Amino acid sequence: MSNEEWLDEREQRAWRGFYTMQRHLRRRLNQRLQRHSGLSEADYAVLVALSEAPGGRLRAFQLATVTQWEKSRLHHQLGRMVDRGLVVREPCPEHPRGSVVALSEAGRDAIVSAAPLHVADVRRHFVDLLTPAQLDAVAEISETVLAVLDGAPDEGADPLPATERG
């Protein structure tokens, strides 16, 4: 492998710093979310998506798109949330083979209770640590990377030429 393919010191510092920061931040936020609300990060993601949807309802495929989850993961997560009374599954009137996921009253109560604490934690552990210019930079960086990722299909291509793979 040539040196051009390795990250240089600057690139490595940026990548490793970002990677480590987001792992630690997510772990901290998830622990506090679980401790204060009993919700997992996955529960919270589903409840937020449904609470922001018209009527608190989304087709299952729409929820998979919003959460960026595979069908299997969504199915298992929704099963756990149905068992806990946070969401309900309903038949889709327009598509007999489709389903609608709806926020239950318990789910609405859970997100209404959890959101202010979670937002305060996000503010405490992220937003308030950065200057307005840094927040703008993070937003711009995120938008740049997401625009490319959202626009390019994951082709599953191996980044190494065949001659260099083990």
From TrEMBL:
| UniProt cross-references to Pfam families, sorted A to Z | MarR_2
Where does the record place the HTH marR-type domain? 11-147
| Top-rank lineage group of the source organism | Bacteria
Q: What is this protein called?
A: Transcriptional regulator, MarR family
What does UniProt list as this organism's lineage? Answer: Bacteria, Bacillati, Actinomycetota, Actinomycetes, Pseudonocardiales
